[in-house]
Amino acid sequence: MGTVISLTDIRRVFIMGDQQFEALKGISFSIAAGEFVAIMGASGSGKSTCMNILGCLDLPTSGTYLLDGLDVGGMNPDQLADIRNKKLGFVFQGFNLLARTPAVENVELPLIYAGASSKQRRNRAMAALEQVGLAGKENNHPSQLSGGQQQRVAIARALVNDPAVILADEPTGNLDSATTEEIMSLFTTLNRQGITIIMVTHEADVAAHARRRLTFRDGLLIGDTKG
Q1: Which phi and psi (to 5°) does residue 202 adopt?
Q2: Helix locations, the chain, DSSP H
């Protein structure tokens, strides 16, 4: 398995007025294709800043980030948007679905940006919905779906472009404990199919589903445990 993510001495400094805040203080790690990694840490530990950099939503102040072999550091906003759409799938705590749009069209969205034909979009979206256990729900609007089903739609949308990595930011934060277990077991199944998953969570029981845990504190990576 090749390396899909490589961070080397990543620093991120935010300037507020005449104050500087170093959110990341020289983080280095790599993630191989097919890993399931949880990023943990208290609020203010740097985990969200790291996730934004991994997701090409923010650029490091210094250091090198290689995503699937591409150096992200020197990219302009259009290039970053392109790499986000081609290489990454996102799953958010709040699902981020379009309320007036049926499930299948929500899943198709990344393919519209990618320029796929309408037939291609529909076929791939239907396959992704089936993959997450929602065959038969393609015409339901988000309001007609439970929270767990809405998150499954969001996961299908993240999968539809066949990304190098799925980034999940507190994906079970809005779900009850039974639904959390369902969603985590879906992530585990997808990971067994070879999909690389990186998940931010502050809940130890959620992180326990991952096979590797990176722990952040005060802008530093203080733990990297497997198993």
Answers
A1: -110, 5
A2: 47-54, 77-87, 103-114, 118-131, 147-159, 177-192, 204-207
The two three-digit tokens of residue 196, written as one number: 């690389």
Rounded CA-CA distance 103/122 in Å is 11
Mean pLDDT of the chain: 92
CATH number, span 3-226: 3.40.50.300
Neighbours of 3 (CB within 10 A): 13
Angle among Cα 21, 77, 2 to the nearest 5 degrees reads: 85
CA gap 31, 212 in Å, rounded = 10
CA diameter of the chain: 56
pTM summary value: 0.91
Task: Tell me the residue type at 62.
Answer: S
**Could you read off the pLDDT of 102-138 as tens digits, one per residue?**
999 999 988 887 788 889 899 999 999 999 999 999 9
Q: What is the pLDDT of residues 157-174, one digit of tens each?
A: 999 988 999 999 998 888
